[in-house]
Amino acid sequence: MGKRGVAKQPNALRLLHGDKNPSRFNANEPIPQEGVMVPPADLSAEVLAVWQARLPELEAMRLAFPSDIDSWRAYCEAVVIHEKASRVLAQSPILVKGLHGGLVRNPALQIQRDAALALLRFAQQFGLTPSARATVEAAKTAGSEVSNPFAGTG
Predict the structure, then answer these.
(1) Phi then psi for 95, rounded to 5 degrees?
(2) For residue range 9-61, what is the model confidence (pLDDT) as tens digits?
(3) Domain regions of the chain by residue span
(4) How far apart are the C-alpha atoms of 95 and 33, rounded to whole Å?
(5) What is the C-alpha to C-alpha distance for residues 68 and 115, in angstroms, rounded to an integer?
(6) What are phi and psi of 116, to 5 degrees?
(7) Residue 37 has what DSSP assignment?
(8) Residues in Cβ contact with 17 at an 8 Å cutoff, skipping those fewer than 6 apart
(9) Which residues pair with 95 in a beta bridge?
């Protein structure tokens, strides 16, 4: 049986989300080793293209660690599967002739939905969805003050 409740967030994401309550932080959280997320040599060209196109966002948020390569690979593969299923569905009907001659749902619908759910779960874990980013407050760096005419109007 799986764990109940909302999945715990790493300390870094808690800080980015603006949580400053020390009792909510894991004092013994393992810290991933920094480094470059090098794509595995056996990636298909399509998966590698997704990897290279989307990794800069992860790096910009300082959430790219070599220990996450397998999860990142699964995300990239889910994106490719979703794109392929979407292309099939764009050129074929939603209902197709089944084994006994009746109409049934196109199997590509299930493949597309499964891939969409997988990539959404991974995207949320990596902070790549609008709702995941909505709660993140990026730390300001010196000299990065942006003029906001609405600041302080609350």
Answers:
(1) -105, 135
(2) 777 777 777 888 877 777 777 778 899 999 999 999 999 999 999 999 989 88
(3) 11-26+37-134
(4) 49
(5) 19
(6) -65, -45
(7) -
(8) 9, 135, 136, 137
(9) 105
Other CB atoms within 10 Å distance of the CB of residue 61: 18
Size of the chain, expressed as the number of residues it contains:
154
CA nearest to 75, candidates 101, 3, 83? 83
Q: What is the pTM of this model?
A: 0.73
Structure tokens at 131: 């709702």
Q: Calculate the dihedral angle through the C-alpha atoms of 43, 45, 50, 54, rounding to the nearest 10 degrees.
A: 80
**Structure-block tokens of residue 111:** 């493949």
- Helix or strand run (H / E) with residue 83: helix 69-90
The two three-digit tokens of residue 154, written as one number: 């609350």
Q: How far is residue 94's CA from residue 107's CA, in Å, rounded to a whole number?
A: 9
Give the tens place of pLDDT for each residue, 111-120.
Answer: 999 999 999 9
- The DSSP line for 94-129 is SEEE-TTSSEEE-HHHHHHHHHHHHHHHHHHHTT-S
